[in-house]
Amino acid sequence: MNHLSTFIEKMKHYMKVLDDKNVFKFSRITGKVVWNLFLVLLVITIAGGFFATGVGAGYFASLVKDEEIRTYDNMKDEIYNYTETSKIYFSDGTLLGNLRSDIVRQEVPLKEVSPYLVDAVIATEDEYFKEHEGIVPKAIARAIFQEVTGAAVQTGGSTLTQQLVKNQMLTSEVSFDRKAKEMLLALRLERYFEKDEILEAYLNIVPFGRNASGHNIAGIQAAAQGIFGVDAKELNLAQSAYIAGMPQSPFGYTPFTNNGKVKENLDPGLNRMKTVLSRMLSGGHITKKQYDKALTQDVTKEFTKSSPSPFENYPHLTMEIEKRATDVMKVELAKQDGKKYSELTPTEKASYKKAADLELRKNGYKIDITIDKKIYDAWQKAKNKVPYGPDITNPDTGEKEMEDVGAMLIKNDTGEILSFVGGRDYEQENLNHATQSYRPNGSTMKPILVYAPAMEMGLIQPGSIIPDTKFTYANTGGSGAWSPNNYDGRYHGLVTARKALQYSYNIPAARTYVKMDRLKATEYLYKMGFTTLSEEERYYPSLSLGGMTTGVTVEEATNAYTTFSNQGKFVDAYMIKSIKSKDGEVVYEHKSKKTDVFSPQTSYLTLDMMRDVVRGGTARGLPGMLKHPGVDWAGKTGTTQDFHDAWFIATNPTLTMGLRLGYDTPKKVAQGYGARSQRVWAALMNATYDVKPELLTKEKHKRPSGITSASFCGISGKLPSKLCKEAGLVKTDLFNVKYLPKEEDDSLQQVKYVVNAEGKKFKAAANTPGEFASDGVMINKDYFDDINLDNIIKDDWDNIIGEDELKDNGKAPGAVSLKRNGATLTWNASGEKDVIGYRIYRKANGSDSYSAVGEVKGGNSKSFKISGGNFTYIVRAVDISGKESENSNPVKVGKDPAPPEEDKPKDPPPPKDDDKPKPPPPPGDDTEDDPEN
Questions:
Q1: pLDDT for residue 134
Q2: Strand 392-393 vs strand 400-401: parallel, antiparallel, or unpaired?
Q3: Which of 205, 236, 238 has its CA nearest to residue 222?
Q4: How many CB atoms lie within 10 A of CB 48?
Q5: 3-class secondary structure for 640-702?
């Protein structure tokens, strides 16, 4: 037992010793194992990291493998390729406004941006902007963690550089692929561009909701102006904080609705402003004092008011500029592609037009126009201060239509359109009546198609005689005969071309035109910019009176008249001076080109004829309406078929202005249309004078060499003959020396004539008593082969005798009743129209026989002077064939001596009876002249 106990004790001793050794050994071994395990794990971790990094890098590489390597120039073009609103500028450089666009954006350099705004954006959107190289891994990791954990606060992982890349170089899709490309391009962008360049580009592309007019805006300049009404450089701290907070949710934080009204709840935007200020404070951008002051500032009272857009202020002008700028740009885009726009197919043209419109609306062009702001504004006011014709009801629609107006003012030498009136109310009709409304131009066609071309061809001169008598043109084109009438429904005889134009007689113009080469005549219209004249209507004789199928715009009609003031050279009117890119590169610049149309001599003669229209013709009331006397105006009135339109166009050495009144649905204009059109014209010209008096100088149209004054016979236009001079028909007018008359007048012949009871002159008959006939001048009947001379009203031709003899009525005239008034015998008319005079007989008182003592020529003359003495008088009427009436009652003068018983007074011999038939008298003529209008 003792041995066992001893053994057990020894074993415990050995075990104790063994345990002590094992613990030490175990500890040592364990330490080695743990260290080795740590090293193994470290190696595995590092290897795993490298593996994960490799895998991640490989995955990243696979995501961006298709992304092309972009050069500096490529990247520059892309980050600065943002939509910017094109701007329109008046001729004096004043901003008209922006071209209409889906988004309003205005580029601004960084140096023109408030430092507060720059700090606010950096503090809010990218606090490490100035330090990072395009991306911030910590921020990306934080954003991923927040996304995975669903954290309430999302700080975002994109730098400003990444946001710029996303907006300008990539699509907006949400994917790892796009995110990888975004990070790669951000790193590359930072290598090529300075921080300020990146920040400037960002500030110009970021959206900021809406402006005070309800339009979408982008870029800091548009935001500053559209929200606070100041430039970006003028933003204060609170305003900067408000705007800087908006990019996170532009339409959530914008203070305005889409109709330009201030939102009822502004808390989201104001709370966001406070967050921005807090970040600026914590980032060290502002002091606590600045922070506190900004918090107390009520920015809502600093919101700008809604202001009308350029379209709202200038609807006709804005729409016209958009159309013209697009027309210019589509040609330039085709040219850039090596194509000629006019040679493209309709589909290609439509494609270029669409591209041009998009180009202008997104690429921030500067469009300079010719419109003078002062004149244009004055015209828009003046047009509303004059009376117009009444509103009428359209029977098809039941809607009211107003008498509308289109007017155009053009600078002659350059073709610049200085002003226009597109209409009285754009909202009602959405039509520019000056540039887009095509209507027949009435008698304003006569100078440009008839008189000037005819003078250029040498067919007429201002003094040329043109019959204004009944006229029918047998149209060989199958549409029947054409018989034009004058507006007053009357004929005016043989008139000069000058007078025909002065009073706008239609028949002389028509007679002239049908004798012309009409293809050659209409070529002049094409040269002067007419675009709607069809090939068929060039042959229509009614074109001479402005009878067009489609019509012409006020712009085209007015532009044609500038040719006369430009000495016969046509300069096409224009409104777009130049279009420049936002970098200042000239994309388009208008260059005026002159086209030879008429000679200076023809132009001046036409002007001189049109001067008479204003001086005393159909526009004679105009000078009294104008504020600026002495201006050398030459113009023409016009009225279209059925009185649907009233035109007036006039030119002076500097300016040409045209105007048309009428309804959109062609209807008869109210009475007084001529005076009304001139009154509106005068109101606009007076408005021009009020703001730009220097444009209305008293300079005269320059008379070129090759013009002279010459005399001509007023019945034929030829050199005056002796008979023409005797008849008092010599007239004087201006001539182109090339076309002076060379032949002597042969239209007249000398004849004997009598005057009937109505005071009209007739050719004497073969048996007419010679003492009652006088020497006179008569038109040679064969001279005018297509005119019935009976229809000629001998306006101032007192000495011209009609071609017909006075018809004998076959009976003796009736006796007259004689009276004495002192030394004058008077009697009543015989009552017969063929009476050509009276014979006076007397006898000595106490004598028994009468003897003739005189005669009175003219059946309308009824008095005779007597001498003293003692006589008894009687009078007998004499007709065209010499038959005498019975004795009148005797009138005794002086004393009657007692006669011898065997003496008896003897009566004069009885009148001879001549029953030869005579032609009937011609119908009475009316010499009153009534001009058009």
A1: 84
A2: antiparallel
A3: 205
A4: 12
A5: CHHHCEEEEEEECCCEEEEEEEECCCCCCCCCCHHHHHHHHHHHHHHHHHHHCHHHCCCCCCC
Q: How far is it, in rounded angstroms, from Cα 436 to Cα 429?
A: 12
Q: What is the 3-state secondary structure (H, E, C) of 152-206?
A: CCCCCCCCHHHHHHHHHCCCCCCCHHHHHHHHHHHHHHHHHCCHHHHHHHHHHHC
CA 556 to chain centroid: 8
pLDDT above 70: residue 803: no
Pairwise CA distance, residues 743 & 114, whole Å? 86
With helix as H, strand as E and coil as C, how does 9-49 read? HHHHHHHHHHHHHHHHHHHHHHHHHHHHHHHHHHHHHHHHH
The encoded tokens of residue 411 equal 């600078």
Strand partners, 873: 842, 891
Cα 920 to chain centroid distance, Å, stands at: 58
What is the average pLDDT score of the chain? 85
| Distance in angstroms (rounded) separating the CA atoms of residues 482 and 476 | 10
Q: How confident is the model at residue 392 (pLDDT cuts 50, 70, 90)?
A: confident
Distances (CA, A) of 281 to 106, 248, 276, 570: 30, 19, 9, 69
Residue 588, pLDDT above cutoff 50: yes
- Choose among 895, 893, 875: nearest CA to 884: 875
CA atoms within 13 A on the CB side of 867: 7
Q: Supply 747's token pair.
A: 């239209």
Is 134:183 a contact under the CB 8 Å cutoff?
yes
Q: 594, exposed or middle or buried, with CB in 10 Å at 0-12, 13-18, 19+?
A: middle
Q: What is the pLDDT of residue 932?
A: 40
Reported as a single tens digit per residue, the pLDDT across 737-747 is: 999 999 999 98
Q: Give the three-state DSSP class for 774.
A: strand
CA atoms within 13 A on the CB side of 919: 13
> Tokens at residue 555, please?
């712009």
Residue 667 CA to residue 779 CA, distance in Å, equals: 44
Buried b (16+ CB within 10 A) or exposed e, 146-175: beeeeeeeeeebbbbbbbbbbbbbbeeeee
Are the C-beta atoms of 126 and 283 separated by less than 8 Å? Answer: no
Residue whose C-alpha is closest to residue 412's, from 657, 655, 649: 655
Q: Which residue is listed with tokens 């104790």?
A: 16
416 φ, ψ to 5°?
A: -65, 130
Straight-line distance from the first to the last Cα atom of the chain, in angstroms, rounded to the nearest whole number: 162
Q: Is the dihedral of CA 428, 429, 432, 438 positive or negative?
A: negative
Is 916 a residue whose pLDDT tops 70? no
Q: Helix (H, G, I), strand (E, B), or coil: what is residue 777?
A: strand
Distance CA 856, CA 838 (A): 5
For the stretch 231-259, pLDDT in tens is 999 999 999 999 999 999 999 999 999 88
Q: Please, which residues have CB within 8 angstroms of residue 186's CB and are 6 or more apart in sequence?
A: 134, 135, 159, 161, 162, 165
Among the listed residues 320, 577, 325, the one whose alpha carbon sits nearest the alpha carbon of residue 423: 320
